[in-house]
Structures are given as structure tokens and as C-alpha cells.
Design goal:
Length: 316
């Protein structure tokens, strides 16, 4: 079932995002993070994907071997396992980095065969040694190109355009939104223009980057609507759970922490105190968003469910 079919006026859904287990770890570690949240009947579960990276390991003969440091494999299989175990929609993240268009097409074929109908199309992060994003050879250069490729497959157009009677896929495509502007965008207006192009290319819903000031979300919603972006815009939520988040989250995700929250976190005596401050802030933030009938509250759990469970139990 497509994600947009779950969204109803006046009803706020619950959803969350998980990380695949580290290589060598059992999927049971992921189930332990998901199990406590299933009582709240999530409409869907996102599964992230981390780009494969490499290191050069010296050999005895003086040469070097290129060694993959990919640490979280198995997104497609994990989505299938989640759907089978919990009977809930799984939304895999598809990224441009590290994939040719042929490899992307093959992943989409696998997803279609498994009955997975929803995907979130993302550019993905730069490699650690890259100043700018560099796509794979014959790969998609940005999320708009990726959305266009998925949209083509929905219309029966594959990389081999000579295929006859090719099956049309049926993916509901999601895109990312940035209430505080994507780090690579020159300004908010250029960011919105690019987002509008993604919607025009076939994106049917938007999930936002995390934010801690609801005004940023509501202003962003107004700007999107004024720009002609009319698809559902799902707010991304994260409870702050430690003092280190005060510096780490703005740096990593290019977003602000409001001064009242930042002051409280700065004065917190330890991580336990910071966690309680973060939970109380998140509960009030979610109650306000739910009262405004947002389509869903989407939690970035990082595969740790306890804080999310505390918030959701107070809100839903």
C-alpha cells in the first residue's frame, strides 16, 4: 500500500526511521529497537542506507588493496524482513552516491518483486574526503535525477529503452525537505525551486530534516504551499538525549537549536538531566504539531527506541 494512502485529513500518523545493523550483527538487534514501538501502530518504518566507502590497505609486496568499509548492508532485505515480521510498510532510502543507474534499477526491481511500494529518494552524503558530492560513473548526480529514474520505471521506461512491454513499477516516491535550508543551497528560495522540481518529477510526499523550533516547520510549510508544492510534508522529529547533541546536531545536520532549549542543555549537569530536558521539549513540540494536524510525526530513532517511546506515549 502506498504511503500517501495512509494520510488522512485531521489524523496524525506515527512513523520512525531505523538504521540497518552493523555488518556482522544479527537482525535481532534491530527487532529489539522496533518491538517497543509497535504498540503505537506505526504507519511505516524507514530504513536508512549508508554509502559504501573504501580504505587502502598496504600489502607485503608494497602495493595496496582497496578494502570496503561499508558497515551497514542489507537495506532491501531488512525492509522485506520488517514487512514480513510486523505487517507494516517499510520505506527504504535510495541514494545516488555509490550507485550507477543500472545498479539503482536493479535495486528497484528487487524492491518491486518484494512488494515494497514506497521509497525515499536522496542524493546521499559526500565521501569523507570529498569537498563536493561526486556521483558514481553513469550514476544519478542528485535526488532530482534519481526521482526521474524511478518515475521512468513507473512508466515502464528502463535503462534499456529497447525493452518491449516492460512492466510499469508502482513506487510512491518521497523526497527530503529542509525547513532550515539544505547546506548546499544558496538560499531558501533556490532550495524551494529545486524541491518543486522534485515534486513535478514525481515526488508524492516530503519528509523533513529534524528541527526543534516548530515555527521553522510552519513557515516552511507556508513557503512550500506558496511555491506550488502541495504534497504532504511530514515533520522529522528527534528527542535530544545527551549534552553532546547541543554541538553535534547543528554541525552535522545544518539546523539550529532554539536559545531556550540550548540554554537549558548547556546548564544541564549531566546526560541524564539533558535527556529529561530533551524529552520534555520534544513532547511539547509533538503535541503542538499534532494539534495542527500534521500528516505524521516521523521520529529519527537511530535504532534506539526508549526516548521515542516515552514521547509517543505522551502524544498518541
Amino acid at each position: 500500500m502506498q504511503l500517501t494512502e495512509y494520510i488522512k485529513p485531521g489524523k496524525t500518523l506515527f512513523s520512525f526511521e531505523v538504521l540497518p545493523p552493523l555488518k556482522g550483527k544479527s537482525i535481532d538487534s534491530l527487532y529489539k529497537a522496533i518491538d517497543p514501538l509497535m504498540e503505537f501502530k506505526p504507519a511505516f518504518v524507514d530504513v536508512t542506507y549508508h554509502r559504501e566507502e573504501y580504505i587502502e590497505r598496504p600489502r607485503k609486496d608494497g602495493g595496496y588493496d582497496k578494502i570496503s568499509t561499508k558497515k551497514r548492508p542489507g537495506t532491501v532485505a531488512i525492509c522485506a524482513a520488517i514487512m514480513n515480521k510486523y505487517q507494516v510498510e517499510a520505506v527504504p532510502h535510495l541514494i545516488c552516491g555509490g550507485f550507477s543507474k543500472d545498479e539503482t534499477e536493479n535495486a528497484l526491481i528487487d524492491l518491486a518483486f518484494l512488494g515494497i511500494e514506497n521509497v525515499l529518494a536522496l542524493r546521499g552524503d559526500n565521501l569523507k574526503n570529498e569537498r563536493n558530492f561526486n556521483p558514481e560513473k553513469n550514476g544519478n548526480g542528485n535526488s532530482l535525477d534519481l526521482i526521474r529514474q524511478i518515475g521512468d520505471m513507473n512508466n515502464g521506461v528502463y535503462q534499456d529503452q529497447e525493452l518491449e512491454n516492460a512492466t510499469e513499477t508502482n513506487f510512491c516516491i518521497g523526497a527530503a525537505g529542509y525547513p532550515e535550508k539544505h547546506t548546499d543551497a544558496a538560499n531558501m528560495q533556490s532550495d524551494l525551486k529545486f524541491l518543486k522540481r522534485k515534486v513535478d518529477a514525481g515526488a508524492e510526499f516530503i519528509t523533513t530534516q529534524m528541527f526543534f523550533d516548530n515555527k521553522k516547520y510552519f513557515d516552511y510549510l507556508d513557503m512550500c504551499r506558496a511555491a506550488g508544492i502541495m504534497v504532504p510534508i511530514i515533520p522529522g522529529i528527534k528527542p535530544i538525549t545527551k549534552k553532546a547533541h547541543l554541538r553535534a546536531l547543528p554541525s552535522i545536520f545544518n539546523m539550529d537549536i532554539p536559545e531556550p532549549l540550548a540554554s537549558e542543555l548547556h546548564d544541564a549537569k549531566d546526560d541524564d538531566a539533558a535527556r529529561q530536558i530533551g524529552l520534555e521539549w520534544c513532547i511539547q513540540q509533538c503535541k503542538e504539531l499534532k494539534a495542527a494536524n500534521v500528516p505524521a510525526l516521523h521520529f529519527y530513532t537511530m535504532s534506539f527506541s526508549s526516548s521515542t517511546k516515552q514521547v509517543v506515549s505522551e502524544v498518541f
